[in-house]
Backbone:
């Protein structure tokens, strides 16, 4: 028999203080009955002797201290999981929102989960094709990797997220591939864009959507990525699927964390974010990976918008420490009409060398990747000199590199949001662009590969 407490003494923002409690556990789910008979939910986030701090899921408006009763349910927040979740949409608390029938669960899982034990991890080494040349060709994504996308306010990260969700595939194993998409704190218009796009392109048939809107309570924003990862863990490690988790926008998650921290009157850290922001983000990111002896994997693409395009802001800064690289969207390229506006030079996938080459992509991938990066960097420098000194001050090689950089942006980067390039098409396009440069300058490619693929 569950005890009912009528000892609510304080409500501040999304937090409620209940006194005189017994046997309450951290992260325990709470049922709150208002004086009107309405039920709301919460979870225990702090315990001090006989006092429990409860975080409310649906907000605190309309709560009367004297007329409110509280029951502690003796279990954590859980997600009912089933393979039937594929093709369905849920809110940030795991409730069905697509007007379809309720899910008949095969199991119920604690959404808090745990990071994968490093001893149990297997090294990521298999290629995932996103269909985007700037990622597949130069910043390759591999199964089990965490590769975030750093964007800015107003940049098209939502279109990039939808494109990856539509196009991503594991070569030779597409049947066992699923996308878990978590939209965190987005507007209704953005949510409708994702729903319509997924349905129109058929991507919904292999996707699980968790959508949290901007006007939903902050606590639901905190649970959305955990719900998505709990679903991904079930599909990957119980159903042996290759799962890609896309989470947008992690900045909204961090803002919700700051809001709740301020309500708890915690000492703020850098820019007002709680001192445990790094730890909290790591508990989300480190749930991706590949387990030894298990065929299923979880690959993560968290997307975050950098306030004021500041890459040193705490959210991208700490994310960069935890994840294996970053894809950065460029405002300059976006203003030029290039889509997707991926900035090549500061972007990096630290595991790309493990997922490319003979038997994975193609034998010429590593050499062409290095040559294209070097040529583009030289071309950007040459263009700057060209603006200052004019063409006459540049050598023939510098002029060729400047021409390469222009063509590279127009043809290679600027592929649009609905062009799905195979890795073969991406590599062949790279060779086509490298013809602009004199052969004597192709110093990073083996001569045998030049003879085989360029001629």
Residues:
């Amino acid at each position: 028999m569950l005890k009912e407490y009528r000892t609510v003494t304080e409500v501040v923002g999304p937090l409620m203080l209940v006194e005189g409690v017994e046997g309450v556990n951290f992260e325990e789910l709470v049922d709150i009955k208002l004086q009107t008979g309405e039920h709301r939910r919460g979870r225990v986030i702090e315990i001090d002797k006989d006092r429990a701090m409860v975080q409310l899921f649906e907000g605190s408006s309309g709560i009367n201290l004297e007329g409110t009763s509280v029951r502690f349910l003796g279990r954590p927040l859980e997600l009912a999981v089933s393979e039937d979740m594929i093709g369905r949409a849920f809110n940030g608390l795991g409730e069905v929102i697509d007007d379809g029938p309720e899910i008949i669960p095969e199991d119920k899982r604690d959404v808090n989960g745990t990071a994968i034990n490093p001893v149990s991890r297997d090294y990521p080494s298999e290629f995932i094709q996103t269909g985007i040349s700037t990622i597949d060709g130069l910043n390759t994504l591999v199964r089990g990797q965490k590769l975030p996308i750093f964007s800015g306010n107003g940049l098209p990260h939502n279109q990039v997220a939808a494109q990856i969700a539509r196009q991503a595939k594991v070569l030779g194993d597409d049947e066992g591939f699923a996308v878990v998409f978590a939209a965190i704190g987005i507007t209704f218009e953005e949510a409708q864009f994702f729903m319509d796009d997924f349905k129109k392109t058929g991507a919904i048939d292999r996707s699980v959507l968790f959508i949290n809107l901007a006007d939903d309570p902050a606590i639901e924003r905190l649970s959305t990525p955990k719900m998505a990862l709990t679903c991904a863990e079930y599909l990957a490690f119980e159903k042996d699927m290759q799962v890609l988790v896309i989470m947008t926008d992690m900045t909204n998650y961090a803002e919700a964390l700051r809001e709740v921290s301020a309500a708890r009157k915690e000492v703020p850290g850098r820019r007002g974010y709680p001192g445990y922001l790094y730890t909290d983000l790591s508990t989300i990111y480190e749930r991706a990976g590949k387990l030894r002896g298990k065929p299923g994997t979880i690959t993560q693409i968290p997307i975050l918008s950098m306030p004021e395009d500041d890459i040193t802001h705490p959210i991208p800064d700490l994310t960069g420490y935890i994840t294996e690289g970053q894809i950065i969207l460029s405002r300059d390229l976006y203003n030029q009409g290039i889509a997707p506006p991926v900035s090549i030079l500061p972007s990096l996938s630290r595991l790309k060398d493990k997922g490319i080459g003979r038997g994975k992509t193609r034998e010429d991938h590593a050499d062409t990747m290095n040559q294209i990066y070097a040529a583009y960097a030289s071309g950007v420098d040459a263009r700057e000199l060209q603006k200052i000194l004019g063409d006459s001050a540049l050598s023939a090689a510098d002029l060729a590199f400047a021409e390469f950089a222009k063509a590279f942006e127009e043809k290679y980067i600027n592929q649009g949001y609905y062009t799905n390039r195979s890795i073969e098409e991406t590599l062949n396009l790279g060779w086509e662009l490298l013809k602009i440069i004199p052969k004597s300058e192709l110093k990073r490619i083996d001569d045998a590969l030049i003879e085989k693929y360029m001629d």
Summary: The chain has twelve helices and 20 strands. The mean pLDDT is 93. Residues 145 and 438 are 36 Å apart (CA to CA).
